[in-house]
Amino acid sequence: MLPLALSLGDPAGIGPELIAACWADRQVADLPPFFAVGGARLLVEAAATRGITLPVAAITDPAQAAACFGQALPVLGDLDGAYTPGQPAPPGARLALASLEQATALVTGHAAAALVTGPIAKAELAQIGFAFPGQTEFVADACGVAPQDAVMMLAGPALRTVPLTVHCALASVPALLSAELIERRCTIVARAMQRDLGIAAPRLAICGLNPHAGEDGRMGDEEIRIIAPAIAALRAAGWDVTGPQPADALFTPRARATYDVAIAMYHDQALIPLKALDFDQGVNVTLGLPVVRTSPDHGTAFGIAGRNLADPGATIAAIRMAADLSARRGSAA
């Protein structure tokens, strides 16, 4: 199998030190070969803040990564910059973007098995002209996929959940919801569950938007006007879909046993339970792409960068999931 490509993320955040920590834990965590795109010097400096002496192997081709992975962290290319933990700045944002661009090109060009993206600061990238809401939309565009067809799923040991609307104001959510959006994205999710996770008959549980799922229209009518018709259409298409369900009860242990993925109406409705249950093992995986892309489900954490406090568990989980998904796709080819 080809190695995985890891983008650095913002060098002022915890991404670089977690890449170093994952390589240091490669045997204990049983990780497949991966390489970082750029940042050889700053990765060594970031590793030192965790007490890790990081050997680095410069590579010019992803195919060289596997041979040296056991002895050193493979780093592709000459991209590099200053390591300034907790102090984001435009040069760091430019490095993060260049690493993301190169890593994405390697994966879409079939030189790497999958893409694992380090955490970026959206505000910092916006200041240097990054035109996308986030990395998901950037990777989708690079793959020629419409942004509405790239679906973010958050996955951990206890829960998988998908927010139908993502980075927007809460006040904007009701106007963004439509039966067509729900049908389209749930179909993408269900097909990805079959192809990438090997779940032949995926069970989707769809949240309501309002408290108590609207309580028959007493607390809002989006469930009646939008969500219920979408569920009916999905069922008519042969998918196992339930709802609209009250979100305050959908994430209990008993309820989670009844579905494979929960479909939420907005960002926090999906991410709060995922982070409460699986913060140190949560993975952001993009569904609907021709390539595999995952990311740890946490941000740059500038406040703890360089202090040996960040847990590598989510990055380890993202690497494992990327390898598992790409292997499953390869076996199904």
Which secondary structure elements does this structure contain, and how are they paired or packed?
Elements lengths: L3 E3 L8 H10 L9 E4 L2 H9 L7 E4 L5 H4 L4 E4 L13 H19 L6 E2 L5 H6 L7 H8 L8 E5 L4 E4 L9 H4 L2 H19 L5 E5 L14 H15 L3 E6 L1 H4 L2 H4 L4 E4 L2 H12 L4 E5 L5 E4 L16 H20 L1
Parallel strand pairs: 1-2, 1-5, 2-4, 3-4, 5-12, 7-10, 8-9, 8-10
Antiparallel strand pairs: 6-7, 6-11, 11-12
Explain what the structure shows.
This protein has 333 residues and is α/β, with parallel strands linked by helices. It folds into two domains: 1-145 and 289-333, 3-Layer(aba) Sandwich (Isopropylmalate Dehydrogenase), CATH 3.40.718; 151-288, Isopropylmalate Dehydrogenase (3-Layer(aba) Sandwich). It has helices at residues 15-24, 40-48, 65-68, 90-108, 122-127, 135-142, 173-176, 179-197, 222-236, 247-250, 253-256, 267-278, 313-332; strands at residues 4-6, 34-37, 56-59, 73-76, 115-116, 151-155, 160-163, 203-207, 240-245, 261-264, 283-287, 293-296. Helix 1 packs across helix 2 (40-48) and helix 8 (179-197) packs across helix 9 (222-236). The longest helix has 20 residues, at 313-332. The relative contact order is 0.17. The mean pLDDT is 94.
Quick take:
With 333 residues, the protein is α/β, with parallel strands linked by helices. It has helices spanning 15-24, 40-48, 65-68, 90-108, 122-127, 135-142, 173-176, 179-197, 222-236, 247-250, 253-256, 267-278, 313-332, and strands at 4-6, 34-37, 56-59, 73-76, 115-116, 151-155, 160-163, 203-207, 240-245, 261-264, 283-287, 293-296. The chain has two domains: 1-145 and 289-333, Isopropylmalate Dehydrogenase; 151-288, Isopropylmalate Dehydrogenase.
